[in-house]
């Protein structure tokens, strides 16, 4: 990881095997590394989630029998991950959208520096 790369901040969720297959976990790690270096990822791997907020996106990871979603926001200094879930319907569940909005609001208020120091920082 270069000093210029962004850190990963996990507000919720994780990518591990199981439930991810080894291949899906490696793909998720590869895509997250690309985001950390500042690369913009578009469809089919990522799409904007304007219903959640500005700079919010979802990574799409196809696994053996499930499609995983990693909800993330691109900040100046970090990629902030709000949720990891198996998507089972065509539209994103409303409760997932609400949870992500709430987590990002808590992360963006005056407590931002405290929250970022208190969560685990991961890099690949």
Your description of this structure?
By secondary structure, the chain is an alpha+beta fold. It is 30% helix and 27% strand. The protein has helices at 22-36, 94-108, 112-118, and strands at 7-10, 46-48, 56-62, 67-74, 78-87, 121-122. A 6-stranded mixed β-sheet has the order 2-3-4-5-1-6, with helices on both faces. It starts with 6 loop residues before the first strand and ends with a strand.
What labels would you give this structure?
single chain, 124 residues, alpha+beta, 6-stranded mixed sheet, 3 helices, 6 strands, 27% strand, disordered C terminus
Strand order of the largest sheet: 2-3-4-5-1-6
Helix content: 25-40%
- In terms of structural class, how would the helical and strand content be classed? alpha+beta
Largest sheet: 6 strands, mixed
Describe the global form. Answer: globular
* N-to-C span: 7 Å
The total count of strands amounts to 6
Rg, rounded, reads 14 Å
Order of helices and strands: EHEEEEHHE
Relative strand content: 25-35%
Low-confidence stretches: 110-124
Tally of individual helices: 3
